[in-house]
Design brief:
CATH architecture of the largest domain: Alpha-Beta Complex
Distance between the termini: 35 Å
Shape: globular
Strand order of the largest sheet: 1-2-3-4-6-9
Largest sheet: 6 strands, mixed
Structural class: alpha/beta
CATH superfamily of the largest domain: 2-enoyl-CoA Hydratase, Chain A, domain 1
Keywords: Lyase
Order of helices and strands: EEHEHHEEHEEHHEHEHHHH
Low-confidence stretches: none
Catalytic activity: a short-chain (3S)-3-hydroxyacyl-CoA = a short-chain (2E)-enoyl-CoA + H2O
Radius of gyration: 19 Å
EC number: 4.2.1.150
Family: Belongs to the enoyl-CoA hydratase/isomerase family.
Strand content: 15-25%
InterPro entries: ClpP/crotonase-like_dom_sf (IPR029045), Enoyl-CoA_hydra/iso (IPR001753), Enoyl-CoA_hydra_C (IPR014748)
Number of helices: 11
Number of domains: 2
């Protein structure tokens, strides 16, 4: 299956831009949306020139979440057969060795919130609103919501948002740590693009190991994290890019990295 009905994928230099592109349908998440997302992910894996990903949306809203018609059609058997695949679609962003930035405007509900939870950095416009209303419909978030939200904002806030089905605005999302950056609506995509290009210009190994190290630290012991730091530092200190970065800084010129 190709993409283009629900999602668009474009490039700006070394940055890939995934755009939720069904504004009239509130960018609802359904089966076609998810299959299109998988096709884009395959394209990303095959493009070794990409150094960053931005996920944004056309229209007034990021996404109103799961399409209830899709939810109405699923069964326990469907979930048993497909949930691992569905979870992997949102876990994909953490497996990528490059930064993934979500740029959120308007409504970001349910499955859409789970989507951005899998990203590395979340930038919200002032009009953004967040909610995980799954409990209201008789289930709990199942694509990383209970897991990643708890890691990000803590157990108490996660219970308030998920069990209470509370909607929060962008300012509160920033305060509790659900998003990292808050901007005016008109500056949203520019801020995301600026940050993505900045990180894309850093040595690839530095970005790759920084992301892996932070993710590992979030999920394991201090000793495990320190051991990873020892390993990555041993590798990085033998790269051409490290020597080029230091030399360029001392010579006051722009570095040229080769990924070696």
């Amino acid at each position: 299956m190709s993409y283009g009905k629900h999602l668009a994928f474009n490039r700006d230099g070394k940055i890939g831009i995934i755009t939720l592109d069904n504004a009239k349908g509130f960018n609802l998440v359904g089966s076609d949306f998810l299959y299109e997302l998988e096709e884009i992910q395959k394209e990303i894996l095959n493009d070794h020139n990409l150094a960053g990903i931005i996920i944004n949306a056309n229209g007034e809203n990021f996404s109103a979440g799961i399409d209830l018609k899709f939810l109405q059609s699923v069964s326990s058997q469907f979930i048993m057969d497909n949930l691992v695949w569905l979870q992997n679609l949102y876990s994909f962003w953490q497996e990528l060795p490059i930064p993934v930035i979500a740029a959120i405007n308007g409504l970001c509900y349910g499955s859409a919130t789970e989507l951005i939870l899998g990203c590395d950095i979340r930038i919200a416009a002032e009009n953004a609103k967040f909610s995980l209303p799954e409990v209201r419909f008789g289930l709990s978030p199942d694509m990383g919501g209970t897991t990643r939200l708890t890691h990000l904002v803590g157990i108490g806030q996660a219970k308030r948002l998920i069990m209470g089905c509370e909607e929060i605005d962008a300012e509160e999302a920033l305060r509790i740590g659900l998003v990292e950056i808050l901007v005016k609506k008109e500056a949203l995509n520019e801020r995301a693009m600026k940050l993505a290009h900045k990180m894309a210009d850093f040595p690839p190994a530095g970005i790759r190991f920084a992301k892996k190290g932070i993710n590992l630290a979030n999920e394991s012991s201090v000793q495990t994290g320190l051991l990873f730091e020892q390993s990555q530092s041993t590798f990085c200190c033998g790269t051409e890019d490290l020597r080029e970065a230091v030399t360029a800084f001392l010579e006051k010129r722009k570095p040229v990295f080769t990924g070696r």
